[in-house]
């Protein structure tokens, strides 16, 4: 019993480290980094040594503010793209308020498709989740709630493509920027 307790304190668990995400390969490390700096923190993968924990603290101290700057810039670029398209529509069709409303609606629908409605199809295929579970994972992830009840790449009975975690990591960054814009828009309406 004492050996089991010591092993647990050393970071060894009964579940082992059998999933592809649990390995500290490039994709797993990249996904861990994204979940740390976005403050999602699923809780499925964490450093088990004192040096690893200290590094994680330092990494987060610099990574979280830098990530906020990057998300702000991505969101700003998305907003500029929508505004540019609205200006072009106004010029071509001589619409005033209609162009802005149309572009905001298109940006909202496109974002809904790219970040909330289509990704659950990928998760259904790669994880074996239902569409509803994939949608739930999408929202819980992009809103940074990150309960950890659903995490990609954790089923040891499945083989995941090498690009999967990297694409999901990029989806998280762009999706968080888009969701932040939607939340900001909702706050502006409420005010």
TrEMBL record:
Protein name stated in the entry: KCNKH protein
Keyword Transmembrane helix part of the UniProt annotation: yes
Family statement drawn from the similarity comment of this UniProt entry: Belongs to the two pore domain potassium channel (TC 1.A.1.8) family.
Keyword Transmembrane helix: yes
Main location: membrane
Entry-linked Pfam families: Ion_trans_2
Membrane topology: Multi-pass membrane protein
Transmembrane segments annotated in the record for this chain: 50-70, 101-123, 135-153, 168-190
Residues covered by the Potassium channel domain: 20-78, 113-190
């Amino acid at each position: 019993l004492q050996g089991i307790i010591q092993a647990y304190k050393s970071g060894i668990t009964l579940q082992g480290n059998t999933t592809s995400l649990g390995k500290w390969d490039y994709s797993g490390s990249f996904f861990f980094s994204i979940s740390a700096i976005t403050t999602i923190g699923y809780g499925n993968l964490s450093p088990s040594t004192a040096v690893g924990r200290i590094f994680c603290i330092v990494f987060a101290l610099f990574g979280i503010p830098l990530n906020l700057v990057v998300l702000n810039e991505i969101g700003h670029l998305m907003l500029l793209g929508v505004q540019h398209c609205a200006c072009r529509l106004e010029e071509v069709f001589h619409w005033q308020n209609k162009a802005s409303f149309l572009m905001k609606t298109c940006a909202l629908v496109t974002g809904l498709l790219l970040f909330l409605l289509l990704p659950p199809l990928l998760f259904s295929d790669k994880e074996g989740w239902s569409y509803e579970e994939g949608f739930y994972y999408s929202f819980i992830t992009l809103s940074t709630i990150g309960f950890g009840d659903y995490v990609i790449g954790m089923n040891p009975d499945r083989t995941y493509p090498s690009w999967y975690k990297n694409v999901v990591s990029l989806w998280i960054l762009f999706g968080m920027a888009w969701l932040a814009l939607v939340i900001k828009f909702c706050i502006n309406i409420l005010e």
